[in-house]
Specification:
Shape: globular
Order of helices and strands: HEHHEEEEEEHHE
Helix content: 40-55%
Strand order of the largest sheet: 1-2-3-4-5-6-7-8
Radius of gyration: 30 Å
Low-confidence stretches: 2-25, 28-53
Number of helices: 5
Distance between the termini: 96 Å
Strand content: 25-35%
Number of strands: 8
Length: 214
Amino acid sequence: MKKLRFFTIATICTVNFALAGQVSAQSLLDNIKKTATQATQKSIQGSSISKMLNGSIGSSSLSENELIGTWKYVGSNCAFSSQNMLAKAGGEMAAQKIESNLTPIYKKAGLSTANTYFTLGKDKKFSAKIAGKSITGSYSYDAKNKKITFQAPLLHSTCYVTKSGSNLNFLFDSTKLLNLLQTVSAVSDNATLQTLGTLSKNYDGAKMGFALRK
């Protein structure tokens, strides 16, 4: 009887230790899965934030010295006035969609790398060609608000200025961009007006313009 009792106790202890081991192993596995999930979520969140910063005007500003030089047109560009506006519009894909709509408009306006550029001097003077039309005048830069103002007979406008990689971006309100294109080219047809008007209406906070590179 004593042997049987001892055997029973030993068996119970063995089973309990085994169960404890299983629970411990399961807990460890659960913790590993939880940690991996959290790391993945943080990675996705970081990627989303990075994309939002790339698609919005952001908080960083350029120094005036970084603007000096000749910047040639390389394509369309779009950014939103805030990360909140970018998020409401649907993220970076919204900015890319707007850019794809701007490209044929710029082509129709006659913009190319060969005939569109801005030269900004240390003396606050600028010279430019937009679709082959020469413009000269002065400019002022508001680093705090990331805005540059051009003053010339054919160009009197203020735009946001940002930098992404090696590109300098001039970003206008849609109405100012349209006025600029109408001033320097023959763009005046209803389809172009409607396209810019629709983009402005559908994407609140969108700023549209040019990507330029030295």
